[in-house]
Amino acid sequence: MNLRMFSFATVMCLSSFSDATSAAERPAIVGLEVYPPKLELSGNRDARRVIVSAKDAEGRLYDVSGEAKLVPAGGQVGIDRDGFIEPKAVGETKVTVTAAGHSVDVPVAVKTLETPPVSFIREIIPITSKVGCNQGTCHGSQQGKAGFKLSLRGYDPLYDYTALVDDISGRRFNRAVPAQSLMLLKPTQGVPHEGGFLFDEESRYYDLIEKWIAEGCKYQEDRRVERIEVYPQKPILQRTDSTQQMIVLAFYPDGTSRDVTREAVFDTSSFEVATVTASGVIKAVRRGEAAALVRYEGLYAANLISVLGDREGYQWQASPEHNFVDTLVNKKLQRVKLLPSELCSDADFLRRVSFDLAGIPPTSEQVRAFLADTRDTKTKREAKIEELLESSDFIDHWTLKWSDLLMSNRKTITEKGVWAFRNWLRASLAENKPYDQFVYELLTSSGSTFENPATNYYRVAREPSEVMENMTQVFLGTRFNCNKCHDHPFERWTQRQYYELSGFLTGVVRKPGSEKDEEIVYSVATGGAMKHPTTGQMLPSAFPFKLSIPEDTSPDARIKLGKWITAKENPYFAKSIVNRYWSYLLGMGIIDPVDDIRAGNPPSNTELLDALTADFIAHNFDLKYLVRTIVSSHTYQRALKTNQWNEGDNTNFSHALPRRLTAEQLYDAIQIATGAPTNIPGVPAGFRATQLPDPQINLSFLDMFGRPPRESPCECERTSDVSLGQTLNLINGPTIADAIAHPQAKIARLVAEKADNKKLVEEIYLTVVCRMPSEDERTKSEAYLAQIGNPTDGAQDMMWALINSPAFLFNR
Amino acid sequence: MRLPRWSVLCLLNFCLAFATASSVTAQEKDAPVTTKPVSFYRQVRPILQRSCSGCHQPAKLGGKLLLTTFAGMMQGGEGGPSVIAGKPDGSLLVQLIVGEKPDMPKGADPLSAAQVDLIKRWIAEGAKDDTPEGISDTFSAEKPPTYSAPPVITAIAYSPDSSLLAVSGFHEILLHKADGSGLVHRLVGRSQRLNTIRFSPDGKRIGAVGGTPALFGEVQFWNLADQKLAFSNTVSFDTLFGGNFNDDGSLFSFGGADNKVRVIKTADGSPVMRMDAHSDYVIGTTFSLKSDHVVSVSRDMSMKLSIVENGQFVDNVTSITPGALKGGLQTIQRHPKDESVICGGSDGEPKLYKIFRTQARVIGDDFNRIRGFAPMPGRIFDAQFNADGSKFVIGSSTATGGAARIYKTDDGAMLFELPEISSPVFAVAFRPDGKQVAIAGFDGQVRLYDAETGKLVSKFIPVTITSTVAVK
Description:
The complex is a heterodimer. By secondary structure, chain A is α+β, with helices and mostly antiparallel strands. Chain A is built from 29 helices and 26 strands. In chain A, the strands form nine sheets. Chain A has a four-stranded mixed sheet with strand order 2-9-8-5, with no helix packed on it. In chain A, helix 18 (573-586) packs across helix 19 (606-618). The two termini of chain B are 48 Å apart. The longest helix of chain B has 29 residues, at 2-30. The chains are: A alpha+beta, B alpha+beta. At the A-B interface, helix 3 and strand 15 of A face helix 1 and helix 2 of B.
């Protein structure tokens, strides 16, 4: 049986989009589309490229930018060696674009031919990023390379300027003879360079750097780019041999823009699906979805790519829509040509929703009752959802999740603190406290850790920066720890912001209380300033981004912080919890990993996440409402079984994703399935694993199956991998064997009641996999019991085999 | 764990993509267009530079083969001569770069067919070196450099009689009248950059160190009487720094980008010692009063004392300088009258140190420090005492600005903040007669100040600017 589980796990890991593309010829082209449809160029270096798409009769677009011929009508513009339209003289003209037997004229106006001086920040640093000088493996490394160090990916322009212009008395440039500058000789291999040849003397990069040196190596605090946009947005590549040119535009505060395609750095989130060349061409590899990641001057953008491959014969078929979740999921499925699975069976739904909402499987009685309920499926499922939402098991299950996230652990908050904190969490969940209020209470809590247990939040982490790191990861779903030592390499967060945000927590004081192990948490007024570790500058507290909320004048910095974090205007707060809850229920976040929200990790379905977030806010941060909305959807209730059109899909929620039971779920499920009494050392008899207050309750089975030690707020602390040790434990270990054979367990009781084989088989199926056996299963199982003779032995064997099957080990 | 691994992957991915893109342009550019004889200098050398010189360069010498010079290539490496003139197919170089999966370039895309063809044709045509005569010193007294913009000034020095001011230029030392009233001589040499210029104590010679970055380092000695080069030593594969005469003028010390300290005899340039204990560029050196020790400062943040006679390392004078930032120490000069030194570096604080210990050394101590002075903005690049050591002039840079000051040595007082400085200061000099100081750096101007009043006396650009660019 364990082999089945193994192979199942393997299939899960390796399952991929099927790739059955035929190298079909491109259909007949009926016309061309050019983006942008017209151009305006200002300044002699304002060269821009256009994307040329060929359109077939059904409106599908194929990128032909690479093969298109561009011919200017007049001398106002020329075409440079990269295919960019470059200004030559002021005036208006057109460029005739020809490809696939069609032509389109693109009007081009050259407004000015001004020659602004080369800007170090806007033009030189992007080159060092583009050719890789400042990457982590070269001069951007902690120690630099060969005596020359740049800031990682150019996050610190003044540092880079100093390195290039000031180090060793200006060793790296030569203003008198720019071509003899070390910074030009190295990348062109004019002198030996271990980093190799990067560009030649005829390239634009060379020209720009040479010009900048000749102009005197000027440094000016330039207008920084405000945002970047990538076109075409969310491209669909029809075939697995398709390519798509992208263009990247940088926008400045004064409304001007530049084409920075040649300076932007490209990457892909999955090179198994699509790669992106240095010049911004997406190359499809196989059917699937990936994000093209674009980086320019400290800004990041992601562009979702869909490679369709061969979908010949695909036809959308309407799938029931229970609420807006299904509408938006299905919209995406149609776009990438997937068909959703059917609704799952009532038995599957019951088991799934019980684990997801209450953390435990239904009992055999509950399964029988649910299957016997003759109301229509939708009605009875909704009734079950309400029942579970109001159950005490719901509180246990979600208390465990929040205890994990908030790292409740007697190592840091003492045993009494753990129980107090648990009670506070339970009470909050029981009253369904609005999520914003829940978080606000935690962040602004003051008083005794025993009397106002929310204050334990400030006991788990004690340093301002540590609290801030946990807070941003849990409540905003972002990683604010990379930028402790340098600006975030994959996001816009800066090192400065790390200390500015931590500053809000500098006034939190902890002092011993009158009781043993008690602490009192309170705020004192401080300047809120933290010291920048490299510049030594004192930084007053400040938020990393402004919200349009009224400024809070409270003297307690934590009140300001709490209001800012929990504001409905905060673009991360509601979104991150919605996404996190979605991942708990569907097995994968719409943004995944859920606590790493950033430009380079885009949502698989932006509209869905936005709609869920808006709905959650509109319903006053009601967590139960959120759970209800999600599990009521057809999307949640879809079968595990796939069809021809969605078998490879893992990211669009077209079918259920199997999830291994968590450590606590598995332990409790074994006890419930076998009917053995639970007796965990250190807690009262009958206490289930889900109800344990912290990981210091010693139960090695739980640790083996990935119980988080609660030392980090990362969702990744809880593991769901499958290991040989686990399998051996399930097959041979005492946890299952003892539970099955327990004298008060189900089998002993059934045998004592002299249940016949039919009843035994049915009960075992109901209690272990929460459904009735199929006819085939029933026949084979009864035959097996008859063959063994001894009903205890036979029934125990059967139960053992079923517990070791994926139908039990997975929530599916 | 996920992020770092992902980033490595994407970086690799990016590098590969880029290498492919760039080699395409290289191939297109190198496609043969004429049937003229292949030029080594114009056509073959660029291929070697791009694809081979990363490993087969002086500093690495992969396979004991040097491919950055014609001579090195002809001499060959471990496998014998690389090229047999007239026999392309018999030449090892060709054998290693042809075929489906050639051995070379290692770990990179093979050379294009057009590139291989060029090399084969060049060998078939006799493998001739058409490198223009003395390409690395194109300039001479007869054909001096011309300037399209003022070069950054990295070194200045007054003659002992206070009559001349030597200023670094591109490939030359410019000798000006000390009051800035005119150019007297130009000493044109091989090195692009001169990082220090010093007059010998008797004023008869000039010693200068520098080189061409990433290619070679050089010590130049000039006779002032006839403005002729007395000798030139090529040292290491990168530039030299911090040259200094001892008090009787018999010895000359300097540091290098090879992390070494060296001392030579000024009579003939012959080596006296070498010290290897530094772990980064050695940027300043100075002798003890008795000339038996040399003190050196480095980007590795340490100040080291070693024995002239045998190069033995004696002591870290500063231990690891407390408060010194990465970037380390950049200048040092011994007091004219006693065994102390003034030094400065990245932390911007001028510091006076005893050279020799009077207490046993303890890890992390700072016993030898005599005093610190009010910190300068940015990094200190150069400092020099006046003739009796009672004052010193010192300059610093913040990369976008700079400062120069005169301090009093004994009580630490700042006498003057020299005015009208708005760009990095890389070089300073105190005129031996004590009346003037000279300041220069990034902007290419020399500024002369009255040392008694701190007032700017005059400023000038030491070269003549013409509109044409000297070399392309």
